[in-house]
Design a protein that fits this description.
Layout (H helix, E strand, L loop, with lengths): L10 E5 L3 H11 L5 E5 L2 H7 L6 E6 L7 H11 L5 E6 L16 E5 L3 H25 L4 H11 L4 H8 L3 H14 L5 H11 L5
Parallel strand pairs: 1-2, 1-3, 3-4, 4-5
């Protein structure tokens, strides 16, 4: 049976290899009611972070050791509930904007604007909490319900699903009804949107 985590307070993980900028970020966030962990090296972060979330990772685009793209790939596999926000200088942004289409939550241009920075982190926390809720709902499904869910969101009708799984149409209708109830979905569009947010994970 899947373990449902009880911790609900998000953590802000900051990875910055420039000591002066890291000190500035510490000074900015410490007065805020935010639980924070700071790292100079991304590997130190990966060795100690909680991949089940909720929270947010704020990292420099030009990391040392593990680059930001590698960090993003690792988080995509291990920590669906931890959005990644990257800090970048204006000269570095044009070469990396395609990463937004690959699931990076946001880019922040250096020098950082305090209101934009704080607003982005708060928004990322809300997104993280939403994703964590989705995961907990998905984990309530049985293995068969996950199988049916996957077939539904990929465009298969109840009749086709019944033929594929060698069961009756009524059995699929019952599975579909339970899936809608467990995921708090009102229509097929809600299931498709949920699957898109989860990037097909857990199915």
């Amino acid at each position: 049976m899947p373990q449902v985590l009880q911790r609900k307070e998000p953590i802000l993980y900051i990875i910055e290899n420039e000591p002066e900028l890291l000190s500035g970020l510490k000074a900015f966030f410490e007065p805020q009611p935010i639980n924070m962990h700071y790292y100079i090296h991304p590997q130190a972060f990966l060795n100690s972070y909680d991949p089940s979330g909720p929270g947010c990772v704020l990292a420099d685009l030009t990391l040392q050791g593990i680059n930001s793209n590698e960090l993003h790939l690792i988080l995509s596999e291990q920590a669906l509930c931890l959005p990644l926000v990257l800090m970048a200088s204006l000269r570095d942004l044009p070469a990396h904007t395609d990463m937004l289409n690959q699931g990076i939550y946001a880019f922040l241009e250096k020098p950082l604007h305090s209101a934009v920075l704080l607003g982005t982190i708060k928004s990322a926390f809300e997104y993280s909490q939403k994703m964590r809720g989705y995961v907990e709902h998905i984990e309530k499904l049985t293995s068969r319900e996950k199988e049916v869910f996957n077939l539904i969101v990929t465009g298969h009708t109840n009749k086709i699903i019944a033929e594929m799984l060698m069961v009756t149409d009524k059995t699929i209708e019952a599975h579909r009804s339970r899936i809608m109830h467990k995921l708090k979905a009102r229509a097929l569009a809600d299931l498709i949107a949920l699957n898109s947010d989860l990037k097909g994970r857990f199915l």
